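Why do we care about 3D structure at all? Because function follows from shape, and shape follows, mostly, from sequence. That is the central idea of this module. The next example makes it concrete: a single protein chain, its amino acid sequence, and then its structure expressed as tokens.
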Amino acid sequence: RRRGAALLRVKQTYQRYGLEPDGGELPDFLPVVLEFSAVSRTDGLLRRHRAGLEQLREALAWAGTPYAQVVAAVCATLPAPGPADRARAERLAAAGPPREDVGLTPYGVPGPVLVPLTERAR
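And the structure:
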């Protein structure tokens, strides 16, 4: 929700630690977040987004993807989700996907070609 503002806050967190993600990835790209957490030796960023991680873990498990095990391993390094985390995850799930218009190309206008994640891994 409010992805632009959330991305800015994550980027500012990195900057407070003197880090700047490179490679053109968004600040919330999970491998970047995990690398930051390992380098900064803080799980504050992961804890702050615990509800979203739980929701992601559950969705991946439901879909039967092997990535569910990776996210489950990350969640296992954090304290167990508390009632507030569970309630927030339930609210996120009930609200459904966010409407995000920022950066979207209008229909009929050529835009960038997106490569599916399965293609990127090759």
